[in-house]
Design a protein that fits this description.
This protein is of the alpha+beta class. It has a single domain, classed as Sandwich (Jelly Rolls), CATH 2.60.120. It is built from five helices and 13 strands. It has helices at residues 18-23, 44-57, 105-117, 175-184, 213-216; strands spanning 25-30, 33-38, 64-67, 70-73, 77-82, 125-131, 138-141, 154-160, 163-169, 196-201, 205-211, 217-221, 231-237. The strands form three sheets. Strands 1-2-11-8-13-6-5 form a seven-stranded antiparallel sheet. The longest helix has 14 residues, at 44-57. The radius of gyration is 18 Å and the shape is globular. Bound molecules: 2-oxoglutaric acid and fe (ii) ion (FE2). 2-oxoglutaric acid (AKG) binds at residues 127, 129, 138, 143, 156, 158, 165, 201, 219, 221, 233, 235. It holds the Pfam family 2OG-FeII_Oxy_2. This is DNA oxidative demethylase ALKBH2. Belongs to the alkB family. Substrate binds at residues 68-70, 144.
């Protein structure tokens, strides 16, 4: 697919500066949630160099996780890097070992590039994922673990095979809000925000989730039979101390 946005999903806001407009998209998800997408964040050759390094040097594992009372192999490889002294990460009954930034200088270079692109950000942990083929995936979830606080900023850098990243609004919680959602289902008024978005995350792209995105939305990387090469994704996060 040539375009970074998926057909049938919402177009991005236009940004006044025309050169920025080509590069950067800002999607207002409503109610204090937003996504930024920069398709050409890392130049192509640099991105391939980083891909090769990560594929080869990172101590990837495929852990057993526990979801809905069942054990299963996580459907992708993973690794975790964090600064010393942070609250430990635990998800799906699995507590990854925290590797040190000092052991992977390239991760520090990528982190530096991310910090430069996002003024004011100060990430101190990183979850890495490797999708070996289109049958590897990440199920619908939100990164709403307590250790990240109520409004985490999550910066996601992708390398290798292009895969779809989907965002879907969580169902309304109060009966009143649920009735409203039911009434408007299928006939969204013009100009009101959509409750689903999709991006094809290209090699070297940066996607940022902000505000209440983890509280109000879920995201996923679905299986895709046609995706037949490796994709590596890095999500930088801040664990407040
Ligand atoms: O691979 C991706 O783009 C997303 C990964 C993700 O959602 C996660 O690690 O929490
Ligand atoms: Fe996630």
């Amino acid at each position: 697919m040539s375009t970074s946005r998926l057909r049938g999903f919402e177009p991005a806001d236009s940004i006044p500066n025309p050169s920025e407009n080509r590069r950067k998209q800002r999607i207002d998800l409503g109610n204090g949630s937003e996504v930024i997408y920069i398709p050409r964040f890392v130049p192509r050759d640099q991105a391939w160099d980083w891909f090769q390094y990560l594929d080869k040097e990172i101590p990837w594992t495929r852990p057993t996780i526990h979801v809905f009372g069942k054990s299963c192999l996580q459907p992708r490889d993973t690794c975790y890097v964090a600064s010393e002294g942070l609250t430990e990460l635990k998800y799906s009954g699995y507590q990854p070992h925290a590797y040190s930034w000092d052991d992977y200088p390239v991760l520090k270079d990528i982190l530096k590039a991310v910090h430069e692109a996002l003024p004011g950000s100060k990430f101190n942990s990183l979850l890495l994922n490797r999708y070996k083929s289109g049958s590897d995936y990440v199920a619908w979830h939100s990164d709403d673990e307590k250790l990240y606080g109520p409004t985490p900023e999550i910066a996601s850098v992708s390398f290798g095979c292009e895969r779809e990243f989907l965002l879907r609004k969580k169902p309304a919680k109060t009966p009143q809000a649920a009735r409203g959602a039911e009434k408007s289902a299928g006939k969204r008024p013009k100009g009101s925000p959509s409750d689903q978005h999709g991006f094809v995350l290209r090699h070297g792209s940066l996607l940022v989730m902000r505000g209440y995105t983890q509280r109000d939305w879920v995201h996923s990387i679905p299986k895709r039979v046609k995706a037949n090469s490796v994709r590596i994704n890095l999500t930088f996060r801040l664990v407040p101390t």
